[in-house]
Structure formats: C-alpha cells, structure tokens
C-alpha cells in the first residue's frame, strides 16, 4: 500500500477527540481537539461558536486536523503558527495562540492553536479580497 492509499484510510476521528463546551448564557461554545499532540501537531480550538453552527465548525475542525496530520505523516512542512489557511473563499483563517481560558488551564498543557477569523474581517464577498468597499457588498 502506498502513502496516498494509507492517508485515504487514515481517519482523524479515530485518533483525535473533538470536545465542545457551551457557556449556556450566550448560546455559544468552545470547540477544541484532544490528541493532536500524539500526531506531532498542535491541538486546535475555535471559541465563541454559535451553537447552531457547531456541526459546521466540527466539519471544519476535522478537515483542518486531517490536513495537519497528513502533512506530518507525509513528511511535508506542517502548518505554522501565524499561517493563513483557506478551505473556501468564505473560510479563511489564521492559526493564532490565545491565552488559556481561566478555569480550563489543564486543556492547555499541550500546544493549542485557535482558528481565528481575522483574515476574513473586511473581506469583500464580491471581489474576494480586502478592498475599499469594506465588506459592504456582503450586505
């Protein structure tokens, strides 16, 4: 079996756990991984997710985790802190390190990177780049 076939059979969900914590009050949640460190990668997180978007966030998180693990497994350069990644024109994010959440410091024993929407702020949906419209064409 070649490396490509092996990667097609590698399912990140069998190796990494997605954990969701809801704050209840604002109806938002914190999604994060456990186990990426065993694959040679930083764990991932997204904060402030509206609860009705959790399923979409989980698909994104699994996709990114699968990609990161494949890079390591194939000896390719891994993603780096500060790097921007896009999975579609409307899903562009930067890997950033956030301060640990007070009371949840144990979740930060291993390296943990957040997927930040910072590269999407002010981005125009029509021209798919930052432009003078300031994103008003999206309205």
- Helices, by number, come to 2
The gyration radius over C-alpha positions equals: 16 Å
Shape: globular
Strand coverage percent: 25-35%
Largest sheet: 6 strands, mixed
Chain-averaged pLDDT: 82
Spatially, the strands of the biggest sheet line up as 1-2-3-6-5-4
Distance between the termini: 50 Å
Q: Count all strands and give the number.
A: 6
H/E element sequence: HEEEHEEE
Uncertain spans, ≥5 residues at pLDDT below 50? 1-5, 134-139
Oligomer: single chain
The total number of structural domains is 1
Query: How much helix is in the residues?
Result: 10-25%
Structural class: alpha+beta
Verbal overview:
By secondary structure, this protein is an alpha+beta fold. The protein is built from 2 helices and 6 strands, in the order H-E-E-E-H-E-E-E. Strand 2 and strand 3 (43-50) form a beta hairpin. Residues 1-5 and 134-139 have low confidence and may be disordered.
Write a brief caption for the model:
This protein is of the alpha+beta class and 139 residues long. It contains two helices and six strands. It has a six-stranded mixed beta sheet, with helices on one face.
């Amino acid at each position: 079996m070649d490396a490509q076939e092996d990667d097609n059979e590698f399912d990140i969900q069998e190796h990494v756990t997605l954990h969701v914590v809801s704050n209840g009050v604002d109806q938002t949640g914190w999604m994060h991984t456990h186990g990426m460190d065993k694959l040679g990668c930083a764990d991932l997180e997204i904060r402030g997710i509206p609860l009705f978007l959790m399923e979409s966030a989980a698909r994104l998180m699994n996709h990114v985790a699968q990609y990161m693990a494949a890079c390591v497994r194939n000896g390719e350069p891994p993603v780096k802190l500060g790097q921007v990644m896009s999975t579609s024109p409307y899903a562009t994010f930067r890997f950033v390190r956030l301060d640990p959440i007070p009371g949840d410091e144990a979740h930060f024993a291993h390296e943990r990177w957040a997927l930040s929407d910072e590269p999407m702020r002010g981005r125009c949906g029509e021209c798919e780049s930052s432009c003078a419209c300031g994103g008003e064409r999206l309205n």
